[in-house]
Amino acid sequence: MTRERDPRRWLRKFRDLAAASLMLFEQKRMLRLPKDRIREIQERRFLAMVEYAYRNVPLYRKRWDAAGISPADIRTLEDIEKLPIITKADIRNGFPAETVSRKVNLADCLLLRTSGSAGEPCTIAWDRDFAIRFFTLTSPYLTGHYWGIKLKTATYVVVIGRGDTLPPVSLDGPDEPLAGGVLVKGDISFIDALEPPGRIIEFINETRSDFVVGYPGIMAMVAHHAKKHAIPVHSPKVVGLTAEKASRQSRALIEEVFRAPTTMCYATTETGVIGATQLSEDGYMLLNWDIVLELLDDDGRPVSPGETGSVVVTTLNNRAMPLIRYAGLADLASFRTQGCAHGTYLEQIDGRRIEALARSDGERINPYLVDALLADVRGIVQYQVIQYTLHDLEIVFVPDRSCPDLLPDWEPVIRQLGGLLGSQTRFRITPAEAIPRKEGCHKTPLVVTRVRDAPVESAEPPGSPLGHSVSTRHASFGA
C-alpha cells in the first residue's frame, strides 16, 4: 500500500484537522475573555500539569522528591515558587529517559533541536497536539484575528532542513524535500532564508502574500538589498519578525521598504509561542492560557513591574515534554508597568541578536549562512564570529571536551567565508573556555560585527578564496 493510500495517514490528517479547528476556536475565545477568567484557566492548567509531570516525568518526580515537595503542596498558581528551577543542562542531559513523559511514544513526537546560541543545544519533543497548536497560533487567519485585520495568505522566510526549525510540509513528512528552496501549499508559502536576498525578494513579489514572516536579521538584510538596488518589493499587510530581537533601526528599515507595519513574536523551540506585539508596538501580550512566565532576580525572587529579570517559563500544553520553571531560555525581560494587569504584557525582551557580516562592496552576508557553515564543524560545542574590520575576523569557539582528540577542520569555513569577504581577509581561530559576552549583555550572539555602513573600497573585490591569512591557537588551549 502506498503512503498516499494508507488509511491511517488519512485518519491522522482528519484528526489533525479537527484538532486544529478546536484549537482555533479556543484561541479566538481566549482573546475575548477577561483577565481574571484567563487567570483561572491558567491556574487550572498549571495544577493539572504539575500532577501530570510528577506522575509521568522522572526528572520532576526525582527533583521534587529531593526538595520534599509533592503536587499536594501546590494548591494555587502562587505556589509555583515552591518548585525547583529547571535548567537547559537538566533538559539536555536528561533527554529522553528523564525528560520525556512515559505516557507518550517518542516516535510519534516532533523532535526539535535548539540552536545553541545560549549554550549547548538540546533536543525538545513536542507531542502532535502541541505542534498543531503552534501551527494554528502562527496561521495567517488567527494572527490576523489578533491584530483585527483580515489575512488570507502568508509567506515564511525561514531556515529549512535544520533541527531547530519546524518542517513546513506536514507532521508525517518532515523529510519531504523542497523544490528549489521554496514550497507553496495552498495559502502558505515557504522560502529558505539561506537563499540570496534577490531571490527572496523575487519570491515575495511572486507570492504577494498578506503576511510575510521572517527573522529580523534576514528581513533587514533583504530590505537593505532592495533599498540599495532600488528593487520594488511587494507591500504586505503585516511583516512578522520572530526568533531574535530586532533593533529599532532594523524595524524602521523593514517598515520603510515593505511599506507595512511590523510585529514581533516571542517564540522559542522549547516553549512554542509565548507572546506577540501589536502592530508597530513593542509590548508583548503573553498567551497566559498556554504558559506561565516568571521574571526572577539573581536570588530567584520575582521582580516588580518595570524591573528586569530572568525569564522562567512553564508550558501548560506539551504533554510529551513538560517544562516547569524552565530557565534555559537565558532571556531577560521586564513586565509592563501601566495599562494592563501584572503579568499580562512584557515591556521588552533582550533576546538573541544575530548580525550580518559586512563586505567591502557595501553588501551584507546572510547571517544564517554563517550559522549553517559553522554548524558543520565537528569538535566544537559553541562559537561566535567577530568582525573587527572589513577584512579582520575572529572565530571564537568552545572545544568539545568529550572528543579531545577531534580537532575542528576550519579550512572549509575559511575558504567559503574568504570567498565572500575577499582574499585579503585575516582569520583568527581562538579556542576559549566560554564565549565572551559584551558588557551589559547576557546573550552570546552567534555573529558580531563592529563594521557599520561600510564604504565601497577600491581594493580587490570579494570572490577569490585563495591567499587568506589564518592564525590559529589550538595549542594554547589547556587539555
How would you describe this structure in keywords?
479 residues; alpha/beta; 12-stranded mixed beta sheet; 11 helices; globular
Decide which structural class fits the backbone. Answer: alpha/beta
- Tell me, briefly, the overall form: globular
Q: Give the biggest sheet.
A: 12 strands, mixed
**Mean pLDDT score:** 82
Rg (C-alpha, Å): 23 Å
Which spans have pLDDT < 50 for at least 5 consecutive residues?
Answer: 174-181, 454-468, 472-479
Q: Please give the number of β-strands.
A: 21
Q: Helix amount, in percent? A: 25-40%
- Provide the β-strand percentage band: 15-25%
Gap between N and C termini: 55 Å
Polypeptide structure, described:
- The structure is a single chain.
- The protein is α/β, with parallel strands linked by helices.
- The protein has eleven helices and 21 strands.
- The strands form four sheets. A twelve-stranded mixed β-sheet has the order 4-5-3-6-7-8-9-10-14-13-12-11, sandwiched between helices.
- α1 crosses α5 and α7 crosses α8.
- 41% of the residues are buried.
- The C terminus is likely disordered.
